[in-house]
Design brief:
This protein is mainly beta. About 0% of the residues lie in helices and about 60% in strands. The model has no long low-confidence stretch (mean pLDDT about 95).
Length: about 100
Amino acid sequence: MVYAIIETGGKQYKVSEGSVLKIEKLEAEPGEKITLDRVLMFHDGNSNIKIGSPLVEGAKVVAEVVEQGKGPKIIVYKYKRRKNYHKKQGHRQPYTKIKIERIEG
């Protein structure tokens, strides 16, 4: 099985061809192809593993943007006792859903 470990949005993901994942928001339209070139590790399915220092030279991952969306609402509540202070705030983190098409090593 061919897989790679990529970095995007300050997080690392293990991806293989055909996998679908939600990553931090990227400026791309649904249906658009994007190239993720920050590949930290690449495995070609045999016993060949390339580990970058910090990145693997010439490796890239091509993906298609499936959708742009927002995650579930998270309530942020701040409170200080006996000071008559409380603050309620909601937040929905934007994400980009992508489908991995091919991994080139």
